[in-house]
Amino acid sequence: MTRIAKFALAALCSISVSLAPGSSVGQETTAITDVSIVDVETGEILPGSTVVIEGGRIVSVAEGADVPAAATTIDGSGRFLMPGLWDMHAHMRADVAPTVLMPQFIASGVTGVREMASDCAGGGVCLADMLEWRERIDAGELPGPRIIQLSSAPINPPFGGGAGENGMRTLVRRAHDRGADLIKVYYRLDPEALGWIVDEAEALGMYAGGHIPIRMTAAEVSEAGLRTLEHARDFLFDCFPGSADFRATTTSQNPPMDVMRSMVDDHQPEVCDATFATFVRNGTWYVPTHVTRRMDAYANDPDFRDDPRRIYIPADAWDSWQADADGMVALDPSPEGRRIVRGFYEKGLELTGRAHDAGVNILLGTDAGDTYVFPGSGAHDELGELVKAGLTPAEALATGTINAARFAGLEDEHGTVAVGKRADLVLLEANPLEDIANTRGIAAVVLGGRVYDRVELDAMLEGVVARIAEYDAGG
Questions:
Q1: Which end of the chain has fewer surrounding CB within 10 Å, N or C?
Q2: What DSSP designation does 68 have?
Q3: CB 292 within 8 A of CB 321
Q4: What are the E-state strand segments in 270-407?
Q5: Which residues in the chain show pLDDT less than 70?
């Protein structure tokens, strides 16, 4: 709940080793034989299937189908094939994304991202650079997850210091003209400004999503047309007796300990239930990012903090994460303080389960790059959080596959293992519907028809470690 300590990406700009691209997309025919398909729509397993891929697309899915003579064959016996995961709240805007971040996403079976802070405030990587990456990835020239959508820079004027209607609408038009797909809104916006932004974005075929203005409730921003609410905490902000006073007076998204205690101990479920009904009625989507609050809850746990994935994080970024976690504990290191923070995190999980049961559409998102939110592998952490929240493994998988594709209007191209869809797939060693942790056991990743086997995926990760070592040594 302290400051957001984003992955210290700008500091990595000296790393310039390039990752050799794989074979050209669509130039090979591949058959995955005798594999069990994970149907993310029905929650069923379809055993004994042969999946044929040509031209970067799935051309055949059938039980015991013939394998084309020219096909490269992958034995899927005892394995499970699912659609690639999409992280719908990720951060990749960094010079080193192609060499340090993208390999981690691919190696984790994350084949698509919605980038949620995509433009610059001057210097460094900007929208034009990210648009170029998108084109190169789609062309098979750059190994990386598809960049599904790109946001504007966050719009977050000082309280009461907005640029007026013309200024807000101009910001939206400029973001549109630069190539953004959505407008990232933030907590200091006033309600009137949000209305102008939503209106202008919709007129341009865009939408607004992100943090909600702190002076508005989640229900109010849903009614105002915000399309996605990011992070679970806003539901807790609304569903306790002191909500109106908190939202009217706070200048921070981080409530003090006594207020946080009340948000948990004095929770009003009927208020949240009404909010969920509003979300369902308006088609507002919800991206919980529980891994961000998990860090808050376990910031004092040495086992949590000594994560073996630290080898994929540069030393200065890791130090920043440690400082952020230390700051979280310092807010109140007493047993009662830690109980409050843990309870806040756990109540967020409970509310996600209730929102799902009420029919709210949920998307998988991690806030990749935030403290202890590891790029790529954090998606598997978040899947586990969604199951903790009460979703079944199949329902959790849907948030990062078919739900994500439907949200983006790309369900005809992505989201399931089906004929005609793009061949962005993950081959698993064990059944993820039996245990969501089985999504971590990746045998191969297919992106646009290009197969990355386990050896290649491991080589990608070894390359990341080597590049980080160069940087940490001052190279």
A1: C
A2: P
A3: no
A4: 285-287
A5: 1-27, 122, 475
